[in-house]
Amino acid sequence: xxxxxxxxxxxxxxxxxxxxxxxxxxxxxxxxxxxxxxxxxxxxxxxxxxxxxxxxxxxxxxxxxxxxxxxxxxxxxxxxxxxxxxxxxxxxxxxxxxxxxxxxxxxxxxxxxxxxxxxxxxxxxxxxxxxxxxxxxxxxxxxxxxxxxxxxxxxxxxxxxxxxxxxxxxxxxxxxxxxxxxxxxxxxxxxxxxxxxxxxxxxxxx
Length: 206
Description:
This protein has helices spanning about 5-20, 30-35, 70-90, 90-95, 125-140, 140-150, 160-165, 170-180, 195-205, and strands spanning about 25, 30, 40-45, 55-60, 60-65, 105. The chain is built from 9 helices and 6 strands, in the order αββαβββααβααααα. The chain has a 4-stranded mixed beta sheet with strand order 3-5-4-6, with helices on one face. It has a two-stranded antiparallel ribbon with strand order 1-2. The protein is an alpha+beta fold.
């Protein structure tokens, strides 16, 4: 069952609210506290380089494994992504179908990656997109981003960096979030390397 963006946004805010005030440090969402509120055990482990994170579900147990070698901001988004799977997608089958086996939701590559089209893939491109949307909504809640964005001149290249630092996410994640919320235009008809469009191209190459 596909979920609308508005549903995912509301679900992320619901999860954040349920986590309580301890889950907020300024504009930074404390993902550890969010996991605790959801009874999810978080583990930072050595994983294969191409694996960002893994969600393990067995009975009432929920575990998220995050790649120790990855950048802390990437780890935060990975945790949000795995929480997205947990909150949006059917976990009952894991408990009902195989109660002694732990199924894995691996976040490898992008949501459009051919890895998700393989016959043995445990997630679909739709589920990956939804999990990414949830992660963005959890780490960069719409009301906060809209409020903070009003304080900055988004034509200034440093504004993206400032906002990314405030929310403790990557610049690319913040740029995409601002596009999703239509706070900035998704495309710019200019070749000026100092423009926002040039900024987008550089972030995509980073």
